[in-house]
User: Fold these one by one.
Assistant:
Number 1:
Amino acid sequence: MENLDLQRLPKHIAIIMDGNGRWAEEQGQDRLYGHYHGVISVRKVVEAATEIGIQYLTLYAFSTENWDRPQAEVLGLMSLFVDTISKEVPDLHQNNIRLHFIGNLDLLPDEARQALASATHTTAQNTGLQLVIALSYSSRWEIIQAAKSLGAQVKQGTLDPAQIDETHFVQALSTKDFPDPELMIRTSGEHRISNFLLFQLAYAELYFTETRWPAFGKEAFIAAILDYQSRERRFGKTSAQINLNT
Ligand code: IPE
Ligand code: IPE
Ligand code: MG
């Protein structure tokens, strides 16, 4: 941790928390056991992010595609979300953490929707870590929602289609209040994006680790940030141009 350059921290880190099922199977347990242990990793990473002063952390907890998993796993995950959110909110609130949820929340069971609404409301004034949970989320769904909302504004006559630029588009996304992630971490060895923040990750540094999510903790999180700090972000320019400006 002492090797971290606190002046060059990413403002926003996004994580695809993958590998709960494989981790559990490797222990001879069922997949839900892995999801339960995954929550412990979430707690560790949230603590580490708060400690070092990360401003935004987005966690991919459940994708739209995950609805197609066996019903017992989906039901187990839903009750885990409700339990975890209800249990963790007092602590999160105490630590000045604000919760946000993105995704097609209409698909969630009532009980889960109520838990999310209450957690959002309780923490709404908090100014510390902005913790964004992507739940029932798919980036293509989000982009299509944005297109619909811009289309509706055009139809109402409040938006000229010729004027639509990146700013308008960003404002129509569910992440409009957050800067783009500079660093995206995916655990458990898969090298893909799985329908996560396709628009927002345009210039993110991607970091992949073999570590399964339940085995991921503060040290692994710091290692990812150190790796990020060792990279040169060029945004299309040349290395010489970047070095001239620093
Ligand atoms: C990530 O772990 C958690 C969710 C997608 C809900 P997985 O459940 O995908 O675990 P693996 O990839 O099957 O090991
Ligand atoms: C991505 O993991 C979604 C979450 C971590 C919530 P998956 O395990 O569902 O992704 P694929 O199926 O391997 O692409
Ligand atoms: Mg997986």
Number 2:
Amino acid sequence: MKALLLAGGLGTRLRPLTENLPKPMALVGNKPWLEHLIVHLKQQGIGDFVLAVKHYADVIKKRLGDGSSLGVRIEYAIEEDLLGTAGAIKNAEDLLSDRFLVVNSDIIHEISIIPLLEFHRNHNGLVTIGLTEVEDPSQYGVVELDMSGRILRFVEKPNKHEAPSRFINAGIYVMEKEALQWIPKHKEVSIERETFPLLIEKNIGVYGKTINGYWMDMGTKNRYRQLHWDLLDGKFTLPLKEKEQGKGIWLGRNTEIGPGVLLVPPVLIGDEVHIGERSVIGPYAVIGDHCELGRHVRCSETIMWDKCKVHDSTQLNNCIFGYGLEVGSRHILHEAVMNRAVGVIQG
Ligand code: GDD
Ligand code: MG
């Protein structure tokens, strides 16, 4: 069975981080999420992937290629224009197996797909949607189910008071290729707003199955931060390349911590990082590979990607920096989300 990973969205809510990068390539625990996702699915027996891409497709192709570096096979379904979630699946039709898995690539999860597949096999539907329960369903696709698990209603991003339940589309589906006959070709179509409601109306067999395990959509800055704090707090695990050296302190290879530096757990610091004397890092700091932090820097609740440079005596709190951002000395930054392509702060 193949897995189709939807990875073509614009990632507008994560801008400027996604200004020159597809959202699923955002680093999670110092590695592009898409790589973690492929490895996670590979561990569950999936070896063939189709990537539905558009926005900065080359970034993905350059990094993952044919998949051999991860021990899988990857093919690409490239969209000239954005086709929407259903249009992207239709566009990949020729590359798909009769039964396939669809995954929104911006979902951080630790989910076993076996129960979902079993449920799908036992119910003979055309689609089985993985469901998860959330406090506020208004940001998601919300479902109403009957006792058998059949979906009676699917409402994408309802008003708070109109949500039929707190069970939402987790962005993981098992689908039969047969279902694709209901999606028009070469057209922008949303699976959530058009295809699912249509299949439900025609009573064609759309089921929902609750999935267990950690789940988070990384699509907003707050959620992107939160999932990192959850990772550092051990609410879910990822195969990190950094080693835990003390409780809640992960360090990469050849990282130099200067004299008098205080690491306040939890912190995750990548490879070849240099931290100058008397800096205080953490709690909740994720520092990418090859970053350089000067002396007397303070950095808490902050994520920075590879090759960032922070000069002496700068204080960072609640910031997210894309690749290679440089911040001068003696700045005080709170809640700054920045990308080198958008702005470099010089001191
Ligand atoms: N190839 C391609 N083409 N991919 C797309 C397109 C497109 O036109 N539009 C979106 N995607 C990809 C995105 O890259 C992302 O991985 C996934 O489809 C979902 O898009 P989002 O933009 O992140 O949607 P959302 O988070 O608002 O809502 C979706 O996910 C929720 C779960 O997190 C919906 O599926 C909701 O129903 C669901 O609850
Ligand atoms: Mg999303």
Number 3:
Amino acid sequence: MKLRYLGHSAFMLTCAENIRILIDPFISKNPLAHIDLSTLKADYILLTHAHGDHIGDTLSLADKQHTTIVCVSELASYFAKEGYKTHAMQIGGAFTFDFGRLKLYPATHGSMTPDGRYGGLAAGIVLEIGNICLYHAGDTGLFGDMKLIAELHKVDYFMVPIGGNFTMDIQDATIATSWIKPKYAIPMHYDTFPVIKTDPQVFRTAVQDFVDDTLILQLGAEISL
Ligand code: NI
Ligand code: MN
């Protein structure tokens, strides 16, 4: 399985049988990203919430015949009305797809589409693919029930926002990481805009006792899981 960082909170997972999963594909409007959208084909697009920096390029990247958009039901109906294939879920619900099991967890955050429609609750996503567990926390502040997620899942890769202002900053992301105790922490949602500028090396130092390693991924970089 491969994981490619597309900047901000966007990732492309390529799993067995070449199933391609895009998460929060904010690409073309990312001031730091220079990735050609035509290179990003997806079987699934997973969305943590409706904000523009997470829905991103979903409308143009999703193939109406082929791509399934997975998100909370309020947001799914927004895409379904436009003729897209969706799989609606809700917080606390899990479903086993052909690639593995996906469960939605809470995130303490808002959610509204760029054109002002209610997006339902914001979510974090736990993926269990083969024997690998990934937790993409979405946009969230620190909340105590992350301890429950740690109790229920042995997280290998923790994609955690560290940029502050809209989400946890490094201090709170460090507490979250101390609870989740992943093998690898992957900081995200920083530097994209001036207001979320921060130094991931400070995060790396802060969490060194809680993880095997912190993976500070360069934009466009791909790693094997
Ligand atoms: Ni947001
Ligand atoms: Mn965001």
Number 4:
Amino acid sequence: MSIDLVKIIKLPKSLDERGNLSFLEEERHIPFKIKRSYWIYDVPGGEARGGHSYHKNEEIIIALSGSFDVILDDGNNKKTYSLNRSYYALFVPKGIWRYMENFSTNSLCFIVASTVFDEEDYQRDYQQFINSKINKS
Ligand code: TYD
């Protein structure tokens, strides 16, 4: 899986004097059916999250509030996305190593996932992740 398939999706925005509203629909604004959502919050300063890839799961990551960095790695190339807008959705395909850091105070990381939670779907060992990429190429 190549890092070139990672993309930022600009979500719709409805702006009026009462404030802003954004939304997403499965298979319309994002390229999969939604099976799960979860959110990460109250991350202490200096902590990192993630540090894994998935065999099957694909995700959309949104900074609903505050900011943080998402570092992505396909085994050959790395790319960092700094998220700080609630209408930017980062699409991360399966098979991409990712971790998140530099969470601002009160940041809220919202994630929409294509599969239900399954610990078996995780690759949590970076060396094994790299080895699996070498064995495939
Ligand atoms: P984990 O995926 O390790 O967090 P992160 O990738 O952000 O570092 O998940 C932390 C814990 O929460 C772990 O015990 C698994 C559990 N968990 C669920 O039970 N369901 C879920 O949907 C997720 C994402 C995690």
